[in-house]
From TrEMBL:
<comment type="similarity">
    <text>Belongs to the 3-oxoacid CoA-transferase subunit B family.</text>
</comment>
<keyword id="KW-0808">Transferase</keyword>
<dbReference type="GO" id="GO:0047569">
    <property type="term" value="F:3-oxoadipate CoA-transferase activity"/>
</dbReference>
<dbReference type="Pfam" id="PF01144">
    <property type="entry name" value="CoA_trans"/>
</dbReference>
<dbReference type="InterPro" id="IPR004165">
    <property type="entry name" value="CoA_trans_fam_I"/>
</dbReference>
<dbReference type="InterPro" id="IPR037171">
    <property type="entry name" value="NagB/RpiA_transferase-like"/>
</dbReference>
<protein>
    <submittedName>
        <fullName>3-oxoadipate CoA-transferase subunit B</fullName>
        <ecNumber>2.8.3.6</ecNumber>
    </submittedName>
</protein>
């Protein structure tokens, strides 16, 4: 079975939780949610999933436990959660903006607000999902820092000791920060995309190793789970249509 671009994105998001153990997965958005549920059904059976309100749930959404808000916050503050957030802007060191576009004192556009991004990035592993890889998102400098990047975390001393940005998944590629200065690095491109396309859609210079591979191909069993169990209505293709990118 050949996979669609959306399905490669689901696989790439699922891989963020490989080897995570018994931690709470907090995916934000359809594709990351499918990825977390797929990981739970396959290679990460100890992963905990939440309905976003007060319950722990199975991949099919049926309850399996109670998770009141105070306990959710304990998991966050104690590092027992891996969140995959969105980003309106990201820079080369992983600083994230979801608050405003333009000068914060008089922004051109108001967005979600800072919300829990600082606490997330300083207390538990964080990844990002970007459904449209473009220079509007991947910028030289974010207009306001919400999620803390590696350059700023380095100056926080003990307060930044648990900071870790695991990966960034987009409709074109997978990226991480495994470089000497923790600047963003291209890890893989999804089939149908190219290294040059990713470079062109990024507003700063990426670290690009020689021989960048393609993103891991979904196994037949994984594709069946995505298509028949997790998303039989095909909502994933509305978030990442074929031919997406840029």
């Amino acid at each position: 079975m050949s996979a669609t671009r959306a399905e490669y994105c689901v696989i790439a998001c699922a891989e963020a939780w490989r080897g995570a153990g018994e931690v709470l997965a907090s995916p934000m958005g359809l594709i990351p949610s499918l990825g977390a549920r797929l990981a739970r059904l396959t290679f990460a059976p100890d992963l905990l999933l939440t309905d976003g309100e007060a319950l722990l749930v199975r991949p099919d959404g049926t309850p399996e436990g109670w998770l009141p808000y105070r306990q959710h916050l304990e998991l966050v503050a104690g590092g027992r959660r891996h969140v995959m957030m969105g980003a309106s802007q990201l820079d080369r060191y992983g600083n994230q903006n979801i608050s405003c576009i333009g000068d914060w004192s008089q922004p051109r556009r108001q967005l979600l607000g800072v919300r829990g991004a600082p606490l997330n990035t300083l207390n538990n592993p964080t990844s990002y999902w970007v459904p449209r890889h473009s220079r509007r998102v991947f910028v030289e400098r974010v207009d306001m820092v919400c999620g803390v990047g590696y350059d700023r975390a380095a100056g926080l001393g003990a307060a930044g000791r648990f900071h870790r940005i695991a990966r960034v998944v987009t409709d074109l590629a997978v990226l991480d920060f495994a470089t000497p200065d923790h600047s963003m690095r291209l890890v893989s491109v999804h089939p149908g995309a190219s290294v040059e396309q990713v470079r062109e859609a990024t507003g700063f210079e990426l670290a690009v190793p020689d021989g960048v591979p393609y993103t891991r191909e979904p196994e037949a069993a994984e594709l069946r789970l995505v298509r028949e169990v997790l998303d039989p209505q095909g909502a994933r293709t509305r978030e990442v249509p074929e031919g997406a990118g840029g």
